[in-house]
Design brief:
By secondary structure, the protein is an alpha/beta fold. Helix content is 46%, strand content 20%. Helix 1 crosses helix 8.
């Protein structure tokens, strides 16, 4: 099988809301069959066009915390008043099948993943400007002004934690950003292949 030939990596994409992480993640997965997106569980309501089990796993708060108690999440966070978590079984399944797993999660979740998987690659995606970010949030028409205000208030925390990421990329041109991230992943795959080859030669 083609996907078995690649080295499985964990790649975490984080950005402020509207920074482009979800769009970039979807593009990488659609173009590269050896990449799969880790589904995030959430207690928020689905946005228009979002499908349960495809875009997110949508749970009620009691169901979400039942899974927390059962230790089913690698990490979980309260973001903008809703809970988000990374299901452990899904990630393990994809890695066992030989895929590289892409995460589309917030900065705190990313740093939690890094603690569990030190070799995970953390990529922070930065908007070109605050004005551009506001414009993107307004244009996508998924949040009211109060929700947008909540998201913007979180920016200082997100930017401060970007220093702990392996890469910090400005998403000025979507296509260039997608290609840049693909090149980063390819570089790490080649390094892993080289390291594996070296260890087998000893």
């Amino acid at each position: 099988m083609g996907q078995q030939k690649s080295i499985s990596l964990l790649v975490v994409l984080s950005s402020p809301s509207g920074g482009g992480k979800t769009t970039i993640c979807k593009a990488l997965v659609s173009r590269h069959p050896d990449f799969k997106k880790s589904l995030t569980a959430s207690t928020r309501k689905p946005r228009t066009g979002e499908v349960n089990g495809v875009d997110y796993l949508f749970f009620s708060e009691p169901e979400f915390f039942k899974r927390v108690r059962n230790q089913e999440f690698l990490e979980y966070e309260n973001i903008h008043g809703y809970y988000y978590g990374t299901p452990k079984a899904e990630v393990e399944k994809l890695l066992n099948e030989g895929f590289s797993v892409l995460f589309d999660i917030d900065v705190n979740g990313a740093l939690s993943i890094k603690k569990i998987f030190p070799r995970a690659i953390l990529i922070f995606i930065r908007p070109p400007s605050l004005e551009e970010l506001k414009k993107r949030l307004l244009n996508r028409k998924t949040d009211d002004t109060e929700e947008i205000s909540k998201r913007l208030k979180r920016l200082p925390e997100e930017f401060a934690k970007a220093d702990q990421f392996d890469y910090d990329i400005i998403n000025d041109s979507l296509e260039e950003t997608i290609e840049k991230i693909y090149q980063i992943i390819s570089k790490h795959q080649q390094q892993e292949i080289h390291a594996t080859h070296q260890s087998t030669q000893k």
